[in-house]
């Protein structure tokens, strides 16, 4: 590089820096703003507003731009600041609030600093001390949820619908829709949830499985989650069954559980292969896998 070309090179670097700065500024604005402008009615219909404060000043931390006056909405999901003329809008999810700091009252107002977990800092100026205190307490409550039912996901819930529990889904109707064949039958093994409190009362199991086999498998599996039918493919008779891992160690065996696995494999007349999918880590899976391969020659293991 010659000395005469050095100024031109410096100018190119300056232009590239300006373009990069503009791109970063545009990206930042697209993140902190929403293109759509919401009205108060839209906010009220979409989220429950916890507190609304007018004449809030959004302070520029660097002091380069003048304060922006607007309205602050604190909802069950977001903090939303919108300027009075609608030129600026700021959205912050409640889950991103890291800390909230309240300053002392001055002639300009009461400062409130919101520090977010993604390193964004929002400086607000509230005119009245009482309103600032209410806003401060509301933001603290939003940042540290004590009860999960206070989250936005639990709003607008139908209490009567929740009380239905397992009755939300009629398994008899569902398996009829799936076209379950005569190799599977409804079983009352879990009536009143006496065998497994995380399974529905009515279970679909191989029709050839007797109660002794089912109870033995139930005692062998964690929390009584024996293999039960969850999906049936009518066109080829394939079935998906789910269960929990065994309660005991690798060396233990359960004759009833082995029998039930064999009956599940025989329930599909169109295929002689039973696929066992184990989602546990490979280290814990391999000892059981070798044992099952020796037990069922036609078994294929997937992990």
TrEMBL record:
GO biological process, alphabetically ordered: phosphatidylinositol dephosphorylation
Record-level Gene Ontology MF annotations: phosphatidylinositol-3,5-bisphosphate phosphatase activity; phosphatidylinositol-3-phosphate phosphatase activity
Pfam family, one: Myotub-related
Domain of life of the source: Eukaryota
This protein's GO CC annotations: cytoplasm
Alphabetized InterPro entries for the sequence: Myotubularin, Myotubularin-like_Pase_dom, PH-GRAM_MTMR6-9, PH-like_dom_sf, Prot-tyrosine_phosphatase-like
Parts of the chain that traverse the membrane: none
Residue stretches making up the Myotubularin phosphatase domain: 165-303
Sequence similarity: Belongs to the protein-tyrosine phosphatase family. Non-receptor class myotubularin subfamily.
PANTHER family assigned to the protein according to its UniProt record, in alphabetical order: MYOTUBULARIN-RELATED (PTHR10807), PHOSPHATIDYLINOSITOL-3-PHOSPHATE PHOSPHATASE (PTHR10807:SF8)
Name of the protein in its database record: Myotubularin phosphatase domain-containing protein
Lineage: Eukaryota, Metazoa, Ecdysozoa, Nematoda, Chromadorea
């Amino acid at each position: 590089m010659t000395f005469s070309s050095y100024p031109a090179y410096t100018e190119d670097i300056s232009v590239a820096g300006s373009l990069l700065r503009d791109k970063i500024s545009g990206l930042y604005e697209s993140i902190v703003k929403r293109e759509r402008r919401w009205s108060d009615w839209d906010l009220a219909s979409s989220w429950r507003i916890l507190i609304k404060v007018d004449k809030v000043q959004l302070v520029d931390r660097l002091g380069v731009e003048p304060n922006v006056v607007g309205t602050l909405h604190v909802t069950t999901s977001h903090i939303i600041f919108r300027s009075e003329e609608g030129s600026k809008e700021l959205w912050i999810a409640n889950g991103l609030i890291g800390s909230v700091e309240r300053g002392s009252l001055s002639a300009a107002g009461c400062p409130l600093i919101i520090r977010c977990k993604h390193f964004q800092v929002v400086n607000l100026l509230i005119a009245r001390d009482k309103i600032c205190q209410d806003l401060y307490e509301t933001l603290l409550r939003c940042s540290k949820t004590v009860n999960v039912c206070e989250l936005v996901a639990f709003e607008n819930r139908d209490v009567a619908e929740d009380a239905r529990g397992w009755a939300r889904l009629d398994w008899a109707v569902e398996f009829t829709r799936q076209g379950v064949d005569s190799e599977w039958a409804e079983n009352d093994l879990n009536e009143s949830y006496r065998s497994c409190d995380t399974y529905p009362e009515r279970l679909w199991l191989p029709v050839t499985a007797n109660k002794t086999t089912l109870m033995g498998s139930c005692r062998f599996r964690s929390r009584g989650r024996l293999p039960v039918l969850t999906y049936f493919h009518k066109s080829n008779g394939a079935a998906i069954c789910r269960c929990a891992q065994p309660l005991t160690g690798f060396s233990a065996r359960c004759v009833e559980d082995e029998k039930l696995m064999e009956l599940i494999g025989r329930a599909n007349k169109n295929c002689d292969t039973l696929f066992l999918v184990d989602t546990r880590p490979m280290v814990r899976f391999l000892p059981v896998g070798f044992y099952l391969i020796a037990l069922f020659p036609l078994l294929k293991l997937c992990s």
